Amino acid sequence: MDSVKIKAIDREGVEHMIEAPVDMNLNLMEALKGSGLDVKATCGGMALCSTCHVYILTDHSLAEPTEDEEDMLDSAFLVEDNSRLGCQLRIESDMDGLVVQLAPDGD
Amino acid sequence: MIKTDILIIGAGPTGLFAVFEAGLLRLRCHLIDSLPQAGGQLAEIYPKKPIYDIPGMPEVLAGDLVDGLMKQAAPFKPGFTLGERAETLEKTEDGQFLVITNKGTVHSAPVVAIAGGLGSFEPRKPPLGNIADFEDKGVSYMVKNPEDYRDKRVVIAGGGDSALDWAIYLADVASEVTLVHRREGFRAAVDSVEKARALDKEGKIRLLTSAQVTGLSGNGRLETVLINHKKKGGIELETDFFIPLFGLIPKLGPIADWGLDIKDNAIRVDTFDYSTNVPGIYAIGDINTYPGKLKLILCGFHEATLMCQSAYKRINPDKKVSFKYTTVSGIEGF
User: Fold this and answer.
1) What pTM did the predictor assign?
2) Mean pLDDT of chain B
3) How many CB pairs under 8 A join A and B?
4) Interval B6-33: pLDDT, tens
5) pLDDT of B120-172, one tens digit each?
6) Does residue B18 sit in the same domain as residue B82?
7) Which domain holds residue B53?
8) I want to staple A52 with a disulfide (CB 3.0 to 4.6 A). Which of A29, B81, B102, B152 is the partner?
């Protein structure tokens, strides 16, 4: 599979179907931002700002968060068990059908 | 009053490189930055992280890149106003721009280059619906004067160094300190964590881990924070103060009110010279936008270089631009 389809729900509850190539070494933050979703990604994908905080709504098995990602989730708000930083999730072919929701943004 | 040729708002990589390019054209620069040190995001957010897309530098630590840019700018003796945020901008009758910071420092220059990145760094505010209603009425995003909390009840939220350090400090000041954090582990310095756990055992502070603040209530003034605990569920905690400490995030801030053409938190520029809709004001680096814009450090360097050429013509309308190859003439400082 050359690309995967991911459903992203923005902060207004609007659903967006995005298609992300699997051979570009992209991460979920880049795929969301590239599709026009409002992800700040202040730090450029280094797990340093938590502005790409998302909730994973499907039961896809994803790589476990690293200690860096857990640390950075500390500065996010309303963190749940299904919280992840988009920048730490590499787009892989087994992500097809993934549904994610952008977490509320601290003002 | 501080006078200069090009007043640069923002001392990140783009602003620092503009000092060098301006210096080659014999223009002096002064930089204003809200952070206490130069380097912008590179120094504040990721000094120890490697950057791989600087031409000719296969791998460089962000902090080292800042050091290099400072060294490169040094011959041109830039001035700095650090730890102050550029607040107001106005044009005087003689065509100069006056920029005043939040601490009242006055700067004057014929050209202003905004190199403010994503804006100035401000405390991150939790997305709790009514939090703005309680600002300065029990909610504050930083500890300005610890004495404000003497013999009061304080709830701090966060898991980093500032949250732990203040919880420890206020243990002897406040009547009651509760630290709310989303998980068991902390990302703060090990001895701070140990100290906080010891104080918790002694009953001097209360660590409420695996918990998050989900709401605030009060009548005109904060009275209660609502906490969701993973195992115990909802907890209502009466308090006098709530101090959320979740780090800093850049915001465009007062620049938005300077009469510039702004689209999606960025300043629209002409790619001919990165000038804005206000003659004499330029915007370079991550803070500008134009068709095809990429927010990359190397693009900021290019924009800074072209901006300086245009600024030179503006400041010296009768002179021809003295473009120089540094390979021929070397660097001649001030």
Assistant:
1) 0.78
2) 94
3) 57
4) 999 999 999 999 999 999 999 999 999 9
5) 888 888 989 899 999 999 999 999 899 999 999 999 999 988 999 999 999 99
6) yes
7) 2-122+249-329
8) A29
Which are the contacts of B275, defined by CB distance < 8 A and separation ≥ 6? B269, B281, B282, B307, B310
What ranges do the domains of chain A cover? 3-102
Which of B28, B45, B21 minimizes the C-alpha distance to B117? B45
- In chain A, residues with a C-beta closer than 8 Å to the C-beta of B41 are 42-43
Within a domain: residue B91?
Answer: yes
Q: Does domain A3-102 have CATH number 3.10.20.30?
A: yes
Number of domains in chain B: 2
What are the C-alpha distances in Å from B6 to residues A47, B61, B280?
35, 28, 10
The pLDDT, as a whole number, for residue B293 is 94
Confirm whether B334 is domain-assigned: no
For chain B, report the end-to-end CA distance as a whole number of angstroms.
21
Q: Is residue B43 part of a domain?
A: yes
Q: What is the pLDDT of residue A107?
A: 59
Instruction: Express each pLDDT in B168-201 by its tens digit.
Output: 999 999 999 999 999 999 988 899 999 999 999 9
Of the candidates B43, B202, B205, the one whose C-alpha atom is nearest the C-alpha of residue B117 is B43
**Per-residue tokens: B226:** 């609502």
Contact A75 B124 (CB under 8 A): yes
Prediction ipTM score: 0.80
Q: What residues in B contact A70, CB-CB < 8 Å?
A: 183, 185, 187
Same domain, yes or no, for B241 and B151?
yes
